Fold these 2 entries.
Entry 1:
Amino acid sequence: MTHLPTDPADFASQAIDGFVQAHPRHVRRVDGGVVRLAPIPAGQVGVVTGGGSGHYPAFAGLVGRGLAAGAVCGNIFASPSAGQVYRVGSAVERGGGLLLAFGNYAGDMLHFSLGAERLRHQGIDVRIVAVTDDMASAPADQPELRRGIAGGLVVYKIAGAAAEAGLDLDAVERLARKANGRTRSLGVAFSGCTLPGASEPLFTVPQQRMAIGMGLHGEPGLSEGPIVPAQELAALLVDRLLAERPAEVPQSQQRVVVLLNGLGNFKYEELFALFGAVAAELDAAGVVMADCECGELVTSLDMAGVSLSVCWLDGELELLWMAAADSPAYRRGVFERHPEAPAGAVPAEELTVPGAPAATPRPVTAGSGTADQQALLERMRAVERELIQRQEELGGLDAVAGDGDHGLGMVRGIQGALSSAANTLAGGGSTAALLIEAGEAWSDQGGGTSGALWGGALMAAGQQIASADTLDGDSIAAAVAAALQAVMALGKAVPGDKTMVDALQPFSDRLGAGVQAGESLEQALHQAAAASFEAALATAQLLPRLGRARPHGERSLGHPDPGAMSLAYSLMAATRSGDPAVSSSPPPLP
Ligand code: ADP
Ligand code: MG
């Protein structure tokens, strides 16, 4: 929660700017995030971490020698965009390749993968390691579905130390994977967090209860119980962690790194009290604490919660964990002062080094573009108005089993797309270029899983239009079909998984059928949007099989999928203009 009046829209970037000013010995601002003040030596592997903001010291706080070379910083609780990943990666890379290491969340996975693709096009060798330490988020036999929480520190630290030691990209990747495979975490939460500028918490935990396994963004816990004294909580966490000793760890290996992490509003004295009980439990189990950290390592704004992580060491992991590091939030051992570091504070304007810069907006002249293009822009403006009006409703739907950011992400996405579209028209661009560039902007500014998917959808539609001779019913239906294919290829969802695909497929099918049957384009669009809306509502009866909502599927029964609803609302708004029969938008969902 914030105490000063705050504009949520640029709170995260203000915080990052200020963070950079507060740590002038360590970091510089780049477009998309932060990098080390002094570049990594030529030929060294660059470890790049990142994710949504709101988790300090993850991720920007871990940028420094012996740790990450850069961090890609998204908005509060929203994954950074592929463009940001690309720009930070470009700013970091010095010939040794890049390891992108981040928590395993669908949005982060999509954007980091797309960013990696763009970096590879520049000839850079890029590897990805997604951290999957959270035992609560999926069963042990499906580690690829587990999300990353505080145990990520071990992975970033070991990868960073390996890179600092001059190991090559293969070795750094192997060690990061090994550290991840040997790290497990489990957390409990006592109360939710409040987004900047909001007055109500994003989620709550009933008084005197604790949610076991609640996620960093308030993804609901797997079970809930009464709060218990420190000894009992320590026993609960240690028992479950030790019960899942990774198969590859031989019984003879008993040395671990222990992290006890406060999530924001579980403060130091209480952490220490709990740590004592944890140490006693580990000792009783015959586990040797080779090293430990007790403090705030990955937070969730002001959430009251605590997590325990254990990484099972072997010789090489222990050496790398113990190696020196010097970042704003994590230091150990001694590095000599880097010769390139300036002695005093650096003026703000010098804290920005150029990565590959984002496009600068061109001024928009009224009336530019063809009539068709102006009409398309008008439809996008209608979508913007609709999404602003629906922002809270969509956020509420996403909070049922996800992280509550969907309304905000959609508004940011359409606004980015709109200003890019206006720019394209002002520059005399084609309709195809308009869609492609709007898609890039949506992905860049919308963030989250849905941002990447909407961005991909618009880009695919634009590419399809580019290959058509004329803009008519057939080519528009083909563009929508291409958008559907792109969403399914990127997100791997199929109809019935309770995602936006469930609303997009009926739109595409009905539009194609209407055009085939000789309906007017407007008529076919209206009918298709109505079919999409009906299908979106019907997702209430489905169980999610993908994305953030999956671990808590049963909670979402009875509630429609937020991404399906936002898509249907957008399509209704885009196709509504000029038809009095459908001129009012549906009432908000209860
Ligand atoms: P995040 O889950 O990263 O916070 P948003 O909240 O913006 O992203 O969007 C959530 C929506 O994204 C879901 O309601 C769903 O419709 C859609 N979604 C999530 N994962 C997928 C996927 N793999 N394929 C298609 N759509 C998805
Ligand atoms: Mg979300």
Note: The pocket of magnesium ion (ligand 2) is lined by residues 398, 402-403, 405-406, 448, 548 (CB under 6 Å).
Entry 2:
Amino acid sequence: MSTKDPTSEVSQQAQRAAAALLQEAGIESIDLACTLGSGWGEAAEQLGELVAEISAEDIPGFRNSGVPGHSGSLKVIRAASGKHVLVIGARTHYYEDRGVDAVAHGVRTAAAAGAGVVVLTNGCGGLNPAWTPGAPVLIRDHLNLTGVSPLQGAHFVDLTDLYSPRIRGIARRVDPSLQEGVYAQLPGPHYETPAEISYLRTIGADLVGMSTALEAIAARAAGMEVFGISLVTNLAAGISDEPLSHQEVLEAGTAAAPRIAALLAQIITATLEES
Ligand code: 8IG
């Protein structure tokens, strides 16, 4: 069963959600969708004019996020180009235990509403000691260490170049100092032990978090071009002497917010102009 198969259950759920969303917003389709992770919450304001803010509960399959620092709304924004951006503040994490379909529902809904591009943002731990909290890093590739796939059945999706080289190029034109890294998604919700971080460095991870990889796979399977960008909000366990706290994550996000919101808005604006 694939998302592209219009008869599949997950596809029907996404189509129902997309129909409700488009009706609430009073528009025909969306062009690009963006999920906002920890620290990225302010970006929506800079993207353009707010067309509609819809509570997650009003769209089938969405729920208010139970995670402090994550909003519970879906926003539709009209960019200066006239194109429509869906900003998904209500992301479901794998650790919320609602299953992989709930995790993938946001990107599938965006695809069903017409979005050809999805921008995935997150807050994460950094394994490179040179990346201090507050640094945005482009996702070049991922390690899906959740042990699961958002897809079911004989659906063999190519993930070579999953993270669009085209949009990464646009991002580096916006900010030539942007670095790239490999993002490892773990199930969470606990952070890692120093031994696990040491292992993750060995297998090629630069960034570690609890989102994005499963969504990226589902988005590619639904035919979307995927772009991912992380905000390093803390050094991963054992990289510094400090213990990890969600409070620290929120503070690093707040401090970096205006800067990274402007960066994200510029990347999305440039991507819309070139799509
Ligand atoms: I923000 O250090 C954030 N999310 N797994 N490890 C994992 N997830 C995270 C981390 C981290 N920081």
Note: The helical segments are 9-25, 100-112, 165-174, 194-202, 213-221, 246-273.
